[in-house]
Amino acid sequence: MESNPISPLVHIRAHLNETSHLPLYQRLQRALRSAIEQHLLKPEDALPAERQLAADLAISRITVRKAIDGLVAEGVLVRRPGSGNFINTRIEKNFAKLTSFSEDMRARGRTPRSVWLKRSEGTVTPDEAMRLRLSPGAAVYRFHRMRYADEVPMCLEYATIVASCLPSLEAVDTSMYDALERAGNRPVRALQRLSALLLNAEQALLLQAREGDAGLAVERLGFLRDGRAVEFCRSYFRGDMYDFVAELNAT
């Protein structure tokens, strides 16, 4: 890990030495995530053994294990028994965590990019009015995009946003959630529905897959803190690149 002029280990040490009130294992998580985001650690790279990492950083192995366990749970790392811990190449999306595509990609060291298919202003369809609880004729913005990670097509996204929640159609640049946050209208909770599908010809062409390949369809309805619906989004993902995970408990 020390062989490169700007090695991941040097980067991680610098982050660990920064003044912070966070527990040490959380600081190590942030340092590892930062190294991934800056491509010092790349997809499919193996982390040093936990014992070696603990020795290199002069911290306990328990702290290293706790930090890595958290990143494995998030899907940033994948643990391969007998081989070690690796940067995850498949994208694992926590189904219980409300984050944007761009945030998910950056957290995994990927570079997100969008290509606009359509941006338009209009009025709600009957289906949108029912889902967003809007009156007929209410104004909405529609954003249709191709989403990429490291230039690999990952997702087709068709989003409808209540127009009163954004200052203008042009307010959305690279991140829709950033634009909503700037306007004070970022969703704080959402209902999501996941289903399997076979990609049709148009979806396969845009996602650089084959017609009939397995895909995932996700519908998301996002709500503001006061209970108003702000976003209805349908997204179509490549089944060979994306996993959705959720933590379940009995309480």
UniProtKB/TrEMBL annotation:
The lineage of its organism: Bacteria, Pseudomonadati, Pseudomonadota, Betaproteobacteria, Burkholderiales. Pfam families: GntR, UTRA. SUPFAM superfamilies: Chorismate lyase-like, Winged helix' DNA-binding domain. Keywords: DNA-binding, Transcription, Transcription regulation. This is UTRA domain-containing protein. It comes from the Bacteria. Residues 22-90 form the HTH gntR-type domain. One of its GO terms (biological process) is negative regulation of DNA-templated transcription.
